[in-house]
Predict the 3D structure of the following.
Amino acid sequence: MKNGDITTHGRNRIELDGKIAIVTGAAQGIGRAIAERLLGSGADVWLWDLDERALTETAGQLGDGAHALHVDVSASDDVVAAAQTVADESGQIDILVNNAGISGANAPLWEYPVDEWRRVMEIDLNGVFYCCRAVVPHMIGRGYGRIVNMASVAGKEGNPNASAYSTAKAGVIALTKSLGKELAAHDIAVNCVTPAAARTALFDQMTQEHVDYMLSKIPRERFVAVEEIAGMVAWLVSAENSFTTAATFDLSGGRATY
């Protein structure tokens, strides 16, 4: 394999038969790749997304076992209702992957628009809180659950001209550690992953200068593939991950130093 190339040969099939999963931001990009990987491992997957058109198209393409649900993760009442819908129609919720997010504007902190700051926080951080808050009681009731929150290496290191995104993702890491400890007495694991940038539609929200900066920081000299993220998530949401909780898993291509 040449430097920078990736391959899907030898992909392991993680055992998720009979499990019911929710993946937020699942209509495209990382969320779609995760949903596809979980479906391939035997789970039924509820795709939550705000983009109804893309959501319907993706659910149709993924086929049997994929269920589309229009959800705004920044609206707590919407999230509570959606979680109840999944529980009522599927009978259980075993897996939650909080992936929905936006990158926000690129600007120095002192020039960052206040409304944009609030929008990033509401989706990237509060949305994770709302989803965990709505789903965890269903998991506690069954005595089982796996939660993975999508953070970012920016939450560890802080990217310049991305203070809102970096702050929100740092908050996701802290939320994961707190919730993981709260649920440690249950068979409910809560972990997060901190990817380097993946080439998805989020790039459309960034300046080319910022994209170039992110690439320059990755020792592997390429962006992470969405399939690579999905592979790590698939193991984290499996029963095989029976001990690790409140942890952060690096997917930065060598960038992260802790």
In short: The chain has eight helices and seven strands. Confidence is low (pLDDT under 50) at residues 1-10.
